[in-house]
């Protein structure tokens, strides 16, 4: 999900640190520039425009201080942090959240909401099959664990991948209207063509997903399950999962499709979460297969519904990311249109991959 931009972006103010020491009863020994969960430096011009993070060293070790995005409501903040806290005690993949003196998971300082979470050093995404396999496997465990909380009083919102894609497309339309006068007439036509085609494709594949019983099963999904929110061990297993800002209730295919796209189709620019390109014409089959086998390693008959939805669900995610790439200037409008024109072929390729995987499983 693309987050609204905070035009008041800046550094965490120095006066916050004294306040933190008081409300958490800690001694901050060192403040470090935020280097990303994958030990990669994030330069100021590449930082999030929605929240600020920094690493602090205290007696208990290294922790990440994060300002909660301004658009998340207080009640939802409590639900998100409570879920992370519960998951930490279940499997440890969600880093521990430090409690304040009054046993709160977050604190309000100078009009902003903050929380402190353990910072687990680890390796980053290296386009490795074993990493992709464990990413899929741990996602399956995540869904099994979060399903236990779906009827809890945490009160998460429901949000589908189709709603996400429509929301990003609307944001692109608003963005285009603001920039329109600064674009050439030819570019204006290309943007309008892209918006029209993307809208038609979202409607088409939404209809397909609904006929395949999208929403029949529901869990609490992560909502942003990508390599930049994960740390890996030297053995390429998952050490930790971060950034639960987009958790919501939806069909498990929400995370599965996002994961398959983010691990086998997206190539990121070095040291950032921005996109280099999307391998729509040649999805990385080995990584796709590894993630798929990780998630469905304990296959059951109910998984057929999920597997049948994968090609169409991945296209919905790709449409969202095509729009996001345009909004962030990750690529030009001509490239985005090229992506759209190849989505049908992409659907056929993914369907072919799935057929081979099913055949292979039947033989074995």
TrEMBL record:
Single GO molecular function: transferase activity
Pfam families reported for this sequence: APH
InterPro entries: Aminoglycoside_PTrfase (IPR002575), Kinase-like_dom_sf (IPR011009)
Transferase found in the keyword field: yes
Coiled-coil ranges from the UniProt annotation: none
Residue ranges constituting the Aminoglycoside phosphotransferase domain according to the UniProt record: 109-260
Listed SUPFAM superfamilies: Protein kinase-like (PK-like)
The entry's keywords: Transferase
Highest rank taxon of the organism: Bacteria
Annotated protein name in UniProt: Phosphotransferase
